[in-house]
Amino acid sequence: MLVKIDEISAIVVDEAIAIHRALGPGLFEIVYESILAGRLENRGLKVLRQVPVPLVFDGQSFGTAFRIDILVEDRLVLEIKAVEQLSKAHAKQLLTYLRILKQPVGLLLNFSGATMKEGIRRMVNDYKPE
User: Fold this and answer.
1) Torsions phi, psi of 127, nearest 5?
2) Number of folded domains in the chain?
3) What does R_g of the chain's alpha carbons equal in angstroms?
4) What angle separates helix 5-23 from helix 29-42, to the nearest 10 degrees?
5) Domain that holds residue 39
6) Residues 6+ apart with CB under 8 A from 101
7) Within a domain: residue 129?
8) Is there a domain that residue 110 lies in?
9) What is the pLDDT along the chain (130 residues), one digit of tens a residue?
10) Is position 42 within any domain?
11) Does residue 109 lie within any of the structural domains?
């Protein structure tokens, strides 16, 4: 059964908030990434970490152009940050990933804020509700 992307997003947000409440800000991105991936797997979701993504442009292949922090159910791209404040560059980065991958939705999650709510940004690329 295909889980709706909005349902997957809701699970990710719930888990990110729970992790932030338990651990707070101040850890490295890789720690939050590892814990979040484990919790999502425990919820029965397919999770891939540090997924290499090749880039082909004008017929040329550029090998691994970037790595996705977490890919959930082969459909939801998660970019994990632990920075004082999200910038426009972070959002542009995720949007570029979504375009290259032809994925509709991604979440930018910054674990370094006072609350997790202020660190969640949902990005869409040709998203059509299911």
Assistant:
1) -80, 130
2) 1
3) 14
4) 130
5) 5-124
6) 53, 68, 77
7) no
8) yes
9) 577 999 999 999 999 999 999 999 999 999 999 999 999 999 999 999 999 988 888 888 888 888 999 999 999 999 999 999 888 999 999 999 999 888 999 999 999 998 999 999 999 987 666 6
10) yes
11) yes
